[in-house]
Design a protein that fits this description.
The chain is globular and about 55 Å long. The protein contains 13 helices and no strands.
Length: about 350
């Protein structure tokens, strides 16, 4: 695999792009969390309105679909071929296995499998928040997150996930066991973890916690707060899904727009890359959105729904590898595409 030529970046351009990512991340996260509360349908409604439905389509189905864009990037494909277990075999096994389970397991017992799926999904959400907080600290050259800071973000995510799993009505799951006594315990654990995280932030020297870094870190701690404030599934959960998806779409869009093509000029290469990303996201996103509504149909329909869950799980697996910056390829690839976020420019 040939190395890509680094993209020149002036300090001022790097600072501007870094600021755009930071402001965009905060606005999209907080806007999604608040917007879901404001747009949540009235109690008893079984479907979101058009506005919330559109936000969820982009933040859920489209964001999962855009992971397929990485398979179109030549330098990434070389890395995928070198690691077929994670990037080829595991996705195929997850999709086929979940399709089989979807077809064979009755709807009510399948709810137990969905609890495990949601546990993985929301853990994935908080892993992304942890990565964003670490990225903000690196981008503003404040050093890595301290162990206590990492622990606090992880603990708030685990407590939030426990709150959701103990209150399956928030996930609109029928047939799943309701573990109501665990919900207040999860809320107490969340409050303790968030408080501990705030103390850890204050223990940083003032110069190491600028507003940008503190904002992303505190948003990561507060991410699961709606779970403990609202009884509406849409107010409590839809915002988490949309916020996670928009965070991802923003940074993947920056990655796609940060490359260049050997066959075209830099500007043309970036535009083509972004056009491919948008088309993959919308076309595959529409297919995933249709499949996500087949959970109560006959066996063939439920097989398609199971395959949809397998695709989402594959997204978890692929992303966990491609964004693992302690490994050589992700660090080099993202360092070339996003130097201003890895503390290398500006």
């Amino acid at each position: 695999m040939s190395a890509a030529v680094p993209i020149p970046s002036s300090p001022s351009r790097g600072a501007a792009l870094r600021g755009a990512w930071l402001v965009g991340t905060l606005l999209l996260t907080l806007g999604s969390l608040v917007g879901a509360v404001l747009l949540a349908p009235p109690p008893g409604s079984t479907a979101p309105g058009p506005a919330l439905g559109g936000l969820l389509f982009l933040g859920s189905s489209v964001h999962v679909a855009t992971t397929a864009w990485f398979y179109t990037v030549p330098e990434v494909r070389g890395h995928l071929r070198e690691n077929p277990g994670r990037y080829l075999l595991a996705p195929l096994a997850l999709i086929a296995g979940m399709a089989l389970l979807g077809a064979l397991v009755p709807v009510r017992p399948f709810a137990l499998l969905l609890l495990a799926f949601f546990a993985w999904q929301f853990f994935h959400f908080q892993k992304q928040n942890l990565g964003l907080a670490a990225l903000a600290s690196a981008a503003y050259r404040c050093g890595p997150l301290r162990p206590g800071e990492r622990l606090a973000i992880t603990a708030t995510g685990l407590a939030g996930t426990a709150g959701l799993l103990s209150h399956p009505a928030l996930l609109q799951l029928t047939g799943a066991p309701r573990l109501a006594p665990l919900f207040p315990l999860a809320a107490a654990a969340y409050a303790l973890a968030a408080g501990y995280g705030a103390v850890q932030l204050l223990r940083r020297p003032r110069t190491s916690r600028p507003a940008a870094v503190a904002g992303v870190y505190l948003t990561s701690l507060a991410f699961f707060l709606p779970v403990f404030l609202f009884d509406s599934p849409y107010a409590a959960v839809a915002g988490l899904t949309a916020a996670h998806g928009y965070q991802y779409l923003l940074i993947v869009g920056l990655v796609a727009g940060g490359g260049e093509s050997p066959r075209f000029g830099r500007r043309q290469g970036r535009l083509i890359s972004l056009a491919v990303l948008v088309n993959i996201g919308l076309i595959l996103g529409l297919a995933l959105n249709l499949a996500s509504h087949l959970h109560t149909g006959a066996a063939p329909a439920r097989a398609v729904y199971g395959a949809y869950l397998g695709v989402v799980m594959s997204h978890f697996v692929v992303d966990a590898g491609l964004w693992r910056l302690r490994e050589d390829f992700p660090r080099r690839f993202l360092g070339r595409r996003l130097p201003y976020l890895l503390g290398r420019s500006g």
